[in-house]
Amino acid sequence: MSDRSREASGLLEARLNDHLARAGRGSVAVSRFLTPGERRQAERWLTAHGVRAQARFWGGYSGAERQCLFLLPDFYLDMPELMPAEGENPAGTIPDPEADAVTAVRIRGSGFRVLAHRDYLGSLLGLGLERDALGDIAVQNEHEAVVFCTRRIAAFLLSNLQKVASDPVRCEEYTPDARFTDGRSYRPIADTVASPRLDCVVAALTNLSREEAQRAVRTGLVEVDFEPEDRVDRILSAPATLSVRGHGRYILRAFEGETRRGRLRLRADQLV
Predict the structure, then answer these.
(1) How many CB atoms sit inside 10 A of residue 263's CB?
(2) Does the global pTM surpass 0.90?
(3) How far apart are CA 137 and CA 153, in angstroms?
(4) Cβ–Cβ < 8 Å for 125, 81
(5) Which of 20, 77, 83, 108 falls 20 to 30 Å from 186 in CA-CA distance?
(6) 190 with 229, same domain?
(7) How many domains does the chain contain in total?
(8) Which domain holds residue 115?
C-alpha cells in the first residue's frame, strides 16, 4: 500500500471512530459519500468492531456506486420494525431528514451543447464542493444529468448551480422513476487467456503485452474490486471489477470454458 493510500485509510478509520462514538451516544451517524473501495474498507472495519448489523449503506437508488454509511445506535437492533432493510432507503431512521437524507437534483442544460460527466463534475466542484459531498452523477442524455447528494447540498445546488461548462442549466429536485438510468454504458469484450491470473486478464482487457501488464500491476496502476492489487499471480474469479489507470474500468463477467488449445474463454465489459 502506498503512503497516500495508508493516509486515506487512516483518515477513513478516524471518521468511522467518530461515527461509532456518535452512534454510542444514541444518534444516527451519517457519513459523507464513500467510494466502492471505501465502502469495502468500512464494512471490514464495522465487522471487526462488531457493529456491522447496525450499519446501512444508501446512495439514492439501488445499485448506486457511491453511498453514505448510516450507523444506527444499538437499540435499533431491539426494535426490528425500525431497522431499514439492506439496500433500502434508511431516511425514516434519520432524526434530521431534511439535512441528512440522500436525495437527487436533476440538471437540465439548454439543449444547444452536449454535456458529459466530466462537465457536470467540474462545475459542481467549481462551486467549492468536495467530491465526497456528492454521490453518483448519472448522465441521462446529452443535455441532462441527475446528481445524488444530501438534502443540505441539494438546497445549495438549487440556489447556486447556474451553468455547466458555460451552458446555462436549470436544477430541480428529482425522485428516480422508471425512466432513470445510472448512465453507465459498456463495450463488450470476448477474448481468451492462458490462465485466470491477474496479469493475463489485464493484458487481454487492455491489449497490453504480458510484460506491460505485469509492470502495471507491480507499479500500483491496477485495482481489483476497487482495492489496489500488486500481485501479478492473483487468481481472479468472476464477477470482478478491474480498474487499470490510463485504460479504464472493466467488469470481468465470466470464464466460459476452454478452447481446443486449453485457453480460457473470457467475457467482460469495459465501462465507456
Answers:
(1) 14
(2) no
(3) 14
(4) no
(5) 108
(6) yes
(7) 3
(8) 102-174
